[in-house]
């Protein structure tokens, strides 16, 4: 999610974008979902938008920052951290395929590079997103999961809040992650930009009508 080839620093989230809503129960594994029962003494509101059935994501679109990128499947590295797409593919993003599918109940994870040795990459402008911006994830069944941004934050890599970012959610949520924060030529970017979003709609590609 890093490289440092861009000549200008990528946009960083403002303090006004800080997330205020509580996240779901903690988990350090990306995209996990807590299937335990809720506290019977607390009221759990129904999600405003029903979850979509599972279908592999193919493409992510973020109109506000002109992102229209294919998605590849990502796993975990040998050390247990989230893998990333090949650095030379500046047009490519990835999703954590062993976790929640975007649109399902839970926390789905998408990641991509901010830049590479040749310049800006797919999520170079991710830090410029604002609350209320839209994200669309096109899926293999012809549907598009539509998300709305709740917050955009930047975290130091040495103090990355795994539970907050990857923790289970009671509704369909999305995290979009890239590098950010300070930059050192020796060690690269010092932090990560994280977009928090939740599902607010779904659409299906219209099939071609039959000729009369």
UniProtKB/TrEMBL annotation:
Compositional bias per record (Pro residues), positions renumbered to this chain: 47-57
GO molecular function terms attached to this record: hydrolase activity
CDD domains for the chain: Sortase_F
Pfam families: Sortase
Keywords: Hydrolase
UniProt biased composition (Polar residues): 25-35
Region (Disordered) location: 1-57
Position of the signal peptide: none
Source superkingdom: Bacteria
Record-given protein name: Sortase family protein
């Amino acid at each position: 999610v890093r490289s440092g080839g861009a000549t200008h620093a990528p946009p960083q989230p403002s303090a006004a974008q800080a997330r205020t809503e509580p996240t779901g129960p903690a988990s350090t594994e990306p995209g996990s979902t807590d299937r335990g029962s809720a506290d019977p003494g607390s009221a759990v509101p129904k999600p405003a938008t029903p979850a979509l059935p599972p279908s592999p994501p193919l493409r992510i679109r973020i109109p506000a920052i002109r992102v229209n990128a294919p998605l590849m499947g990502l796993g975990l590295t040998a050390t247990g951290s989230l893998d990333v797409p090949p650095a030379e593919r500046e047009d490519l993003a990835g999703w954590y395929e062993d976790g929640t599918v975007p649109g399902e109940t839970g926390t789905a994870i998408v990641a991509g590079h901010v830049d590479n040795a040749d310049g800006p990459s797919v999520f170079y402008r991710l830090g410029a997103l604002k609350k209320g911006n839209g994200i669309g994830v096109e899926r293999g069944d012809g549907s598009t999961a539509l998300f709305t941004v709740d917050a955009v934050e930047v975290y130091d890599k040495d103090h990355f809040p795994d539970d907050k970012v990857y923790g289970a959610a009671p509704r369909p949520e999305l995290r979009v992650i890239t590098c950010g924060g300070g930059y050192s030529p020796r060690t690269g970017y010092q932090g990560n930009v994280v977009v928090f979003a939740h599902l607010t709609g779904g659409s299906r590609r219209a099939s071609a009508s039959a000729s009369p």
